[in-house]
């Protein structure tokens, strides 16, 4: 039998009795079974399999050999610490897909006696998760109707200038990215806006052979989209999953407190984001818009190209969707205003939440006709196949872990040794919180970092007699908005790095001063505007005169 006879072919009356149904093994493989055994060993002893075993192994080591505290909650605290080690080892190493790891509390918590199956399952679908789900559906509608591209092209036409003004063009593209990121999560914003930026840059000569001024401007635009995506996410609760994790943990740890509403966060996050964005624009202009850049770019770009691209998108048929989006923002902003000026939620005795509004508006997308085709709606469920269920599961896991750390008593045990922080001034510890959280998130998942850090910061705040939001907010914002250094820090950074216009040195050169400026701005904002906002939430039975002495 020759070599070609070893494989399955279409049988005919002539060869039907000769053709084997399956490929035959090579004689060498039969004569040398140790080769296949060696390959089996190699497939077993891999780094990924080691990381898979690392989770349960570390958990059981803690279960059998670690003793935490004393009393009836000692075993539960030990079990919770073991489960935390298991989950976070899988999250950090990504030995198991992150959405699968995010589901592990559903079976680990009941098996280790931390919570009942019903209790842990409820954390995976609450008002915050509903807010995320509705926002994702709205984001898919934005993508479907090319709202992002129309907005970007129109604003670019306005800011392009005549003659071409590179700083204004940067401001237009980055400002558009900032605005879109306020209402969409960072990753979809980067995925949507990066093609808009690279579409403009495609008119310029690429590679090392291009003019130096043009290449520098290309770097600046790509970096601007990356960082504007992260900064814009500070502004609103829906801007990034980290903000939602913060809200969920606040609700979990302080159930009697007034929840952090969309409006409350916006009045703090938006001014802070504007300040950091202004610093970003100054840094980009300083490094990437040198003298003579305008003349170098004018050779390759004019407004006629942008107008043609806008015309190719055709007539906008989603006007009703645009109005609906504006209604959503207004309802979010006015649900709860202040204690003296209640929002429209008072009509429903405070039973509605931001998730209520988000899901209601998302539902209307499947009811309102698109006005273009008969019986067609603005959205149909087939367009929702791209819903990022992994992120939703990750948020649910974060809320489950936060609830487990609190109810098991582990948070109190971990905070017992933090008494030395009682005399540390706030202006010293707030930048440290940003720095530590931002450093960890350069190497691990942003949401995972937030889930790990926030419960500890709550205990630190209690030890310092400080309002918990004074540390929770810097910890959360530092976990993603200040992940500016490495390309792997966030998916948004990966999107920009993959364009080929930037390298790690560019990110370090731009990201390092931006990170420092962000930490300074956040440290200044929290004792001022942040203090006003946090005082609107509730009285946490904390002596605020003591808090004020630490701040001052």
From TrEMBL:
GO cellular component: a single term: plasma membrane
Main subcellular location of this protein, as a coarse class: membrane
Keyword Transmembrane: yes
Keyword field: Membrane, Transmembrane, Transmembrane helix
One Pfam family per UniProt: Na_sulph_symp
InterPro entries: SLC13A/DASS
Compartments where located: Membrane
Transmembrane found in the keyword field: yes
Record's bilayer topology term: Multi-pass membrane protein
Transmembrane segments: 50-68, 128-147, 225-250, 262-289, 310-334, 346-367, 387-405, 425-445, 466-487
GO molecular function, one term: malate transmembrane transporter activity
PANTHER family cross-referenced by the UniProt entry: SOLUTE CARRIER FAMILY 13 MEMBER, SOLUTE CARRIER FAMILY 13 MEMBER 2
Protein name listed in UniProt: Tonoplast dicarboxylate transporter
Species the sequence originates in: Stephania cephalantha
């Amino acid at each position: 039998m020759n070599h070609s006879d070893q494989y399955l072919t279409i049988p005919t009356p002539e060869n039907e009795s000769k053709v084997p149904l399956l490929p035959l093994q090579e004689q060498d493989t039969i004569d040398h079974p140790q080769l296949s055994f060696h390959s089996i060993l190699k497939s077993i002893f891999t780094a990924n399999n080691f990381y898979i075993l690392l989770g349960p192994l570390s958990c059981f080591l803690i279960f059998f050999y670690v003793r935490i505290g004393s009393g009836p909650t000692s075993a539960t605290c030990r079990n919770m610490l073991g489960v935390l080690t298991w989950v976070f080892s899988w999250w950090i190493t990504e030995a198991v897909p992150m959405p699968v790891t995010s589901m592990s509390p559903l079976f680990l918590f009941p098996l280790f006696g931390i919570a009942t199956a019903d209790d842990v399952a409820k954390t995976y679908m609450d008002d915050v998760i509903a807010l995320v789900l509705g926002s994702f559906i709205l984001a898919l509608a934005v993508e479907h109707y090319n709202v992002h591209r129309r907005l970007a092209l129109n604003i670019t036409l306005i800011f392009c200038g005549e003659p071409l003004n590179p700083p204004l063009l940067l401001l237009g593209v980055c400002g558009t990215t900032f605005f879109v990121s306020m209402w969409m999560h960072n990753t979809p914003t980067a995925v949507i806006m990066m093609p808009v930026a690279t579409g403009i840059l495609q008119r310029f000569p690429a590679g090392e052979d291009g003019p130096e001024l043009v290449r520098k401007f290309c770097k600046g635009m790509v970096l601007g989209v990356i960082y504007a995506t992260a900064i814009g996410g500070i502004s609103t609760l829906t801007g990034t999953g980290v903000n939602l994790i913060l809200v969920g943990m606040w609700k979990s740890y302080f159930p009697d407190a007034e929840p952090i509403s969309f409006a409350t966060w916006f009045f703090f996050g938006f001014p802070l984001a504007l300040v950091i964005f202004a610093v970003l624009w100054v840094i980009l202009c300083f490094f990437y818009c040198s003298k003579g850049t305008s003349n170098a770019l004018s050779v390759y770009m004019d407004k006629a190209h942008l107008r043609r691209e806008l015309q190719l998108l055709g007539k906008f048929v989603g006007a009703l969707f645009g109005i609906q989006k504006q209604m959503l923002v207004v309802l979010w902003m006015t649900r709860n205003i202040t204690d003296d000026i209640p929002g429209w939620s008072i009509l429903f005795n405070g039973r509605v939440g931001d998730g209520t509004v988000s899901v209601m508006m998302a539902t209307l997308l499947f009811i309102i006709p698109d006005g273009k085709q008969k019986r067609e709606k603005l959205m149909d469920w087939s367009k929702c196949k791209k819903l990022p269920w992994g992120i939703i599961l990750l948020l649910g896991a974060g809320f489950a872990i936060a609830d487990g750390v609190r109810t098991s008593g582990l948070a109190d045990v971990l905070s017992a040794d933090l008494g030395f922080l009682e005399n540390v001034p706030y202006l010293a510890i707030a930048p440290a919180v940003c720095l530590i959280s931002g450093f960890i998130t350069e190497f691990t998942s942003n949401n995972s970092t937030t889930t790990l850090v926030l419960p500890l910061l709550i205990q630190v705040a209690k030890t310092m007699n400080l309002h918990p939001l004074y540390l929770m907010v810097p910890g959360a914002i530092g976990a993603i908005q200040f992940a500016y250094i490495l390309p792997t820090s966030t998916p948004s950074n990966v999107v920009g790095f993959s364009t080929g216009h930037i390298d790690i040195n560019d990110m370090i050169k731009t990201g390092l001063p931006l990170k420092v400026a962000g930490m300074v701005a956040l440290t200044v904002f929290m004792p001022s505007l942040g203090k006003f906002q946090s005082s609107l939430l509730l009285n946490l039975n904390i002596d605020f005169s003591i808090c004020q002495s630490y701040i001052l």
